[in-house]
Amino acid sequence: MNLDACVAALEAVLVASARPMKRNELAHLLELSDQELERALAELAERLQRPDRGLLLERVGGGVWLVCKPEFAAKLEAIGRPVKEGPLSAAALETLAIIAYRQPVSRPAIEAVRGVRAEAAVAALVERGLVAEVGRADTPGRAILYGTTEAFLLHFGLNSPDDLPPLPEPEAMQLDAELNGEVGEGPTET
Amino acid sequence: MSPDFDAFTLAPEGWEVELDQFEGPLALLLQLIRRQKLDILDIPVARITAQYIAHLDAMQPLLPELAADYLWMAATLLAIKSRMLTPRPQEAGDEDGEDPRTELVLRLLEYQRFKARVPELVELSAGRERLYRAAPRLSAEKRRPLYPDPAGGAGPDDLRRALLERLRTPRTPERAPPANPIQLREVSVFARAGELRTRLASGTALDFDELCRTPGGRSWWVVTFLAVLELVRRGEADVVQSERFGPMRLLGREGGAEQDAGAADLQEGSE
Q1: Cβ of B140 under 8 Å from any chain A Cβ?
Q2: A40 to chain B, minimum CA–CA distance in Å?
């Protein structure tokens, strides 16, 4: 397949696909080598960026997909019925952060960090599809373990949870100017 | 009272309790620490404890019952405070001179680690709500029949259609309610099913439409319908339909060979 044909095939498949498609899925489907696929994806991405195109190629959720450019959001909202959910509460976001960085993690472990019961927050996140049960702990009690989902990655524009900003070490927190309003001192000797 | 205790005004108005109750005691403590620019590694426990408890008192009218976690934290703070005031006898496993605040401080730091990620997450998702795509089509799911389909058997859709037809058909005189309104006839699904069972036992197939045309008003044939469903559910009868949208028949299943023979006869004409 020549480049134009590859680009066209990619566009057709990605418009129709329900979720981001992994690169190996695409390569297999279109019978391309990894390099050919990469080249076609780069070409498609570039062409889409031009002002006469309405879509964008996004690399997200471990794959690629097409989305409408944000400048057309208002028009789309006028014709469609966008699925809009309310914002997440601070409690839910904190819980989500704990799950995202610590996954797989159990509810008691989440509660130990937050200092409050996490049942409601976890339930809300499961309801939104941002987290899901990913297994059970080996320890007695076999607590349910939670992890983030593909929808989580899509919501935050990530390819994988590893793409999250790194978690600072606890010792570094003492130097957090935000927390103390001034640069903190070194650890006090007890 | 520790001499360090600061007579702060703890009036809630001055403090803007922004926290909603579900953020938790650690969040409240962090806010107290941050607001007063305290060193988290050297928390003035007496002061913080007094302020924390004053906050709980202020929140009390808003929350009928304070979450146990808040109360637990109050108890923890009081325990730390008392440990700092009174020298404790050495217990096995205690390190020399361990700061009683250490565990709490570690928890606060750990909580702060994740709390600080929240603005980052919000930033990551900012604007993404304007990236739209078409919702995926639902794949045309193959419909699996709910019941095993005897050859030429009527399915739940057929039964439902028949029921709806009955509901829509205008009343004919023969289905009018009894002239004497006081006379209430009680019908039970159980009794009707028993009656049908008896009739089916003789080997006859009952015509579904006929069954429903029995006079007695809507409640009567709703009961009949339920009785039919009950018989089918228990495996005592089958609803058979020899052609699409054709008349349905009720056929007894249990019993001797006569029933089976009857069933085979009817199935010949099936699709």
Answers
A1: no
A2: 21
Given CB atoms, is B235 within the 8 Å cutoff of chain A? no
**Per-residue pLDDT at B146 exceeds 90:** no
DSSP strands (E only) in chain B? 206-207, 237-241, 248-252
Q: What pTM was estimated for this model as a whole? A: 0.61
Instruction: Using alpha carbons, select from A182, A116, A186 the residue that is nearest to residue B34.
Output: A182
Residue type, B70: Y
3-state secondary structure of A57: strand
For B22, nearest residue in chain A (alpha carbons): A91
Lowest-confidence region among A35-44, A142-151, B12-21, B70-79: B12-21
Task: Quickly state the pLDDT bin for B256 (edges 50, 70, 90).
Answer: very low
pLDDT digits (tens, 9 = 90+) for A12-43: 999 888 789 999 999 999 999 999 999 999 99
At B77 the pLDDT is 94
Nearest residue, CB atoms, A115 vs list B97, B107, B131: B107
* DSSP codes, A138-176: SSTT-PEEEEE-HHHHHHHT-SSGGGSPPPPPHHHHTT-
Helix, strand, coil percentages for chain B (3-state, nearest 5): 50, 5, 45
Q: What is the mean pLDDT of residues A137-158?
A: 92
Whether the CB of A123 is below 8 Å from some CB of chain B: the reply is no
Partner-chain residue, chosen from B34, B99, B122, that has the shortest CB–CB distance to A190:
B99
Which amino acid is it at A106?
A: S
pLDDT of residue B260: 35
Q: Check CB contact under 8 Å for A184 and B120.
A: no
A190 and chain B in contact, CB less than 8 A: yes
A78 near B CB under 8 A: no
Closest to A64 measured CA to CA, from A100, A24, A34, A32: A24
Tokens of A62: 């471990």
Of A93, A101, A174, the CB nearest to B40: A174
Q: Are B59 and B10 in contact (CB under 8 A)?
A: no
Mean pLDDT across chain B, nearest whole number? 70
Which residue out of B20, B66, B114 would a mutagenesis test of the A interface target, given it has the greatest number of A Cβ atoms within 10 Å? B114
pLDDT recorded at residue B62: 66
Distance in Å, alpha carbon of B6 to nearest chain A alpha carbon? 19
Q: What is the pLDDT of residue B136?
A: 59
Handedness of CA B38, B42, B46, B49 (dihedral sign): positive
Q: Does the structure's ipTM exceed the value 0.85? A: no
